[in-house]
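Before any further analysis, backbone shapes were mapped to integers, which produced the following:

***
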Amino acid sequence: MVMKSAVDDDDAGWGLGIPEKMKNNANWVDITHEFKGACKELNLGELLHDKLFGLFEAMSAIEMMDPKMDAGMIGNQVNRKVLNFEQAIKEGALKVKDLSLPELIGIIDTSFCCLITWLEGHSLAQTVFTCLYVHNPDLIEEPSLKAFALGILKVCDIAREKVNKAAVFEEEDFQAMTYGFKMANNVTDLRVTGMLKDVEDELQRKVKSTRIRQGEQRDPEVELEHQQFLALFNRIKFTRLLLTALITFTKKETSSVGEAQKLVVQAADLLSAIQSSIQHGIQSQNDTTKGDHPIMMGFEPLVNQRLLPPTFPRYAKIIKREDMVAYFGKLIERIKTVCDVINTTNLHGILDFFCEFSEQSPCVLSRSLLQTTFLIDNRKVFGTHLMQDMIKDALRYFVSPPVLSYKCCLFNNHQAKDYIDSFVTHCSRPFCSLIQIHGHNRARQRDKLGHILEEFATLQDEAEKVDAALHSLLMKLEPQRQHLACLGTWILYHNLRIMIQYLLSGFELELYSMHEYYYIYWYLSEFLYAWLMSTLSRADSSQMAEERLMEEQVKGRSSKKTKKKKKVRPLSKEITMSQAYQNMCAGMYKTMVALDMDGKVRKPQFELDSEQVRYEHRFAPFNSVVTPPPVHYIQFKEMSDLKKYNPPPGSADLYMAASKHFQQAKLILENVPTPDPEVNRILKVAKPNIVVTKLLAGGHKKDAKVLPEFDFSAHKYFPVVKII
């Protein structure tokens, strides 16, 4: 029960009171005296709680009325009266018609800033809906502002729908809640783009009418008006193009992606004009409000404060107008990249595309657009290809299994068809999940890669069984052919790629301490890359064997012609890059062991854990994988024990060995015919590390107490070792 007197102090402006119905139907009794008396019976430190209110609830509860904990209290800390849209119109605090050009430009620019802040993970209530005009665009009489308000709502609605559909966001990436606001659902997309186009055409006429004419003396006021009309025209056109591009992405035809690309290219052309005309808009009055929210006509940062959940206050820092244009520029570049995915035809190429796109740490909208472009509603890749067909093509490209060869007797064998179709169907879901994982932010990707290994371990087991069944079938029909480890090799390859990516991403996310580097690099060089190299070699041999059989079967062509053609091996580039990565990891491993010998690696004082505990924690996700079998800590210590060599190598020997590994990586990469940015990045690390390890091998600064530095700025997985 509560005190009757507490109800009388109702803060009507914020609607905090108890509903009228409750006031009339309840007989309120003051229990303060009895409550305080009961409290005195508890000893110091004792807590009386209901069974439904345990420690978890106590930790997540907030202290009401405390400004540090209660988001609703911020409204009581400002001197001004907080008005909603209708109240602001009634009191004349904002205009709905006859707005000046600087006012329109300022409102649009600030709305763009709010839109971007929302896309970066803040709530709609604290960003876009702090603009009072979007609460009810029907009340706006100014045509350009009304069209813009509807346009920005549509942009938000389509972006929200895309992000929700792609499902590659976490709570820190995006907040989809609309707090009950209408997202202009009563107006069709076509109507809104039509309204924007009408306003755009009208503004274009005004731009032309105020344009300077040849031989005419220019009035500064007319020139300013011309610049302002042009600035408003560019913003309205940009809104229309952005909205139309997002609408185009909702279509299911592949051709619509090319259309969207043209639209965003047009939008990008307007950005420099928008950047140069920012000063024409009215500026915010001050930035003193909590959360650095701009205060200007049409905006009220606290209008939705009571809609926020009862949590700790989260301040939305609205980005600056100058940064807004740069952000839109990067967003458009990312959307243009997304459109390129439809030119990638095979599954391995698509996986590589998603990996490379993810490395840029793109925003949640562009990540979601990529996902929804890849897999359309009907669960077909780009809306046309079945995932099963893409998996079969990937298998043909990678290992050329006889069962998928048109010239093999298994190709039309019903039993073999059932085996391979069943296997490919089982592959579809894990591969779609793997591609979806690459749409998440970098930190979440790592967690999810650890979990998906379990699904690939099951696939590995099935692949080996299907291979054995197909091999026994093939032996009966074509004894000279084999079907050993074809499907298994392909799944093993993807397993190894996931494991390698899981470990390497730890460097990018700065999860490892310096003293852990040596066993991470050891696991990569001696184990995972060694397995990957043998897997790729086996796949390459399998391809060559299949090609030889095909050539023997082709009759009537001269053998000389076929000899002259030197065919490029499909996996040759990947084999080369894997050799380079393996040498880089081996070089880093030996450098770390040698630095440890010289006492130049700071180690923690293990109290509650040990190196074994940390090692097992780092490689825990690999326990679910059967092939390759996980290397346990005791095995690792035995395999990496230097005492087994006679004589055991010293630190100088290890530095020289590391230098040779870096040298080998450099030689491999310098022979790559068309080096890509990744090759150049690794070379930037390998070259200085060759010099540093040679200096260390010669005893350079051996007695110095200063610890080495590891600079990951050139490459996110391999540091440049610096001895200061």
Q: What stands out?
A: The longest helix spans residues 517-553. Strands lie at 709-711, 720-722. Residues 147 and 196 are 5 Å apart (CA to CA). The two ends are 70 Å apart (CA to CA).
